[in-house]
Write a structure and sequence with these properties.
Layout (H helix, E strand, L loop, with lengths): L2 E11 L4 H9 L4 E7 L3 E8 L2 H12 L4 E13 H6 L1
Antiparallel strand pairs: 1-3, 1-4, 2-3
Subcellular location: Cytoplasm
Subunit structure: Interacts with the cytoplasmic NapA precursor.
Family: Belongs to the NapD family.
Length: 86
Protein backbone atom coordinates (compact mmCIF):
# COMPACT_ATOMS: atom_id res chain seq x y z
CA UNK A 1 0.00 0.00 0.00
CA UNK A 2 1.23 3.46 -0.78
CA UNK A 3 0.53 6.75 0.94
CA UNK A 4 -0.84 10.07 -0.23
CA UNK A 5 0.03 13.25 1.66
CA UNK A 6 -1.58 16.70 1.59
CA UNK A 7 -0.36 19.66 3.59
CA UNK A 8 -0.86 23.40 3.68
CA UNK A 9 1.63 26.07 4.58
CA UNK A 10 1.59 29.77 5.26
CA UNK A 11 4.59 31.39 3.60
CA UNK A 12 5.59 34.97 4.39
CA UNK A 13 7.76 36.64 1.76
CA UNK A 14 9.25 40.02 0.96
CA UNK A 15 6.32 41.73 -0.78
CA UNK A 16 8.46 42.92 -3.71
CA UNK A 17 9.44 39.32 -4.47
CA UNK A 18 5.98 37.80 -4.12
CA UNK A 19 5.35 37.12 -7.82
CA UNK A 20 8.70 35.47 -8.48
CA UNK A 21 8.48 33.32 -5.34
CA UNK A 22 4.89 32.37 -6.20
CA UNK A 23 5.97 31.25 -9.69
CA UNK A 24 8.87 29.25 -8.24
CA UNK A 25 6.60 27.47 -5.76
CA UNK A 26 3.99 26.73 -8.42
CA UNK A 27 6.68 25.16 -10.61
CA UNK A 28 7.31 22.48 -7.97
CA UNK A 29 5.57 19.13 -8.55
CA UNK A 30 2.37 18.86 -6.53
CA UNK A 31 2.49 22.50 -5.38
CA UNK A 32 -0.24 25.11 -5.65
CA UNK A 33 -0.68 28.68 -4.38
CA UNK A 34 -4.48 29.07 -4.20
CA UNK A 35 -4.45 32.26 -2.10
CA UNK A 36 -1.98 35.10 -1.74
CA UNK A 37 -1.93 38.70 -0.59
CA UNK A 38 0.03 41.59 -1.98
CA UNK A 39 1.50 42.15 1.51
CA UNK A 40 3.59 38.98 1.07
CA UNK A 41 1.50 36.18 2.56
CA UNK A 42 0.86 32.99 0.56
CA UNK A 43 -1.16 29.87 1.27
CA UNK A 44 0.62 26.90 -0.29
CA UNK A 45 -0.81 23.40 -0.78
CA UNK A 46 1.58 20.49 -1.30
CA UNK A 47 0.53 17.00 -2.41
CA UNK A 48 2.63 13.90 -2.86
CA UNK A 49 2.90 10.17 -2.45
CA UNK A 50 5.74 10.17 0.07
CA UNK A 51 6.37 12.15 3.23
CA UNK A 52 9.96 12.77 2.15
CA UNK A 53 8.75 14.49 -1.03
CA UNK A 54 6.60 16.88 1.00
CA UNK A 55 9.37 17.55 3.52
CA UNK A 56 11.87 18.19 0.71
CA UNK A 57 9.58 20.76 -0.94
CA UNK A 58 8.86 22.39 2.42
CA UNK A 59 12.59 22.74 3.11
CA UNK A 60 13.20 24.05 -0.41
CA UNK A 61 10.52 26.73 -0.01
CA UNK A 62 11.92 27.80 3.40
CA UNK A 63 15.32 28.47 1.85
CA UNK A 64 14.17 30.47 -1.17
CA UNK A 65 15.64 33.99 -1.26
CA UNK A 66 12.97 36.43 -0.08
CA UNK A 67 11.09 33.91 2.10
CA UNK A 68 10.86 35.30 5.62
CA UNK A 69 9.00 32.47 7.38
CA UNK A 70 7.18 29.23 6.57
CA UNK A 71 4.66 27.55 8.87
CA UNK A 72 3.03 24.14 8.48
CA UNK A 73 -0.70 24.56 9.11
CA UNK A 74 -2.15 21.17 8.16
CA UNK A 75 -0.98 17.69 7.19
CA UNK A 76 -2.98 14.60 6.33
CA UNK A 77 -1.84 11.18 5.19
CA UNK A 78 -4.11 8.55 3.64
CA UNK A 79 -3.37 5.04 2.51
CA UNK A 80 -4.01 4.76 -1.24
CA UNK A 81 -6.44 1.85 -0.73
CA UNK A 82 -8.61 4.09 1.50
CA UNK A 83 -8.81 6.68 -1.27
CA UNK A 84 -9.91 4.12 -3.86
CA UNK A 85 -12.72 2.88 -1.62
CA UNK A 86 -14.15 6.36 -1.03
Amino acid sequence: MSEFHVCSLIVYVVAEQLESIKKTIESLPGAEVPIFGESGKLVVVLEGEQKNDIVGRFDYIKQLPGVLDTTLVYHQMEEQSELKEA
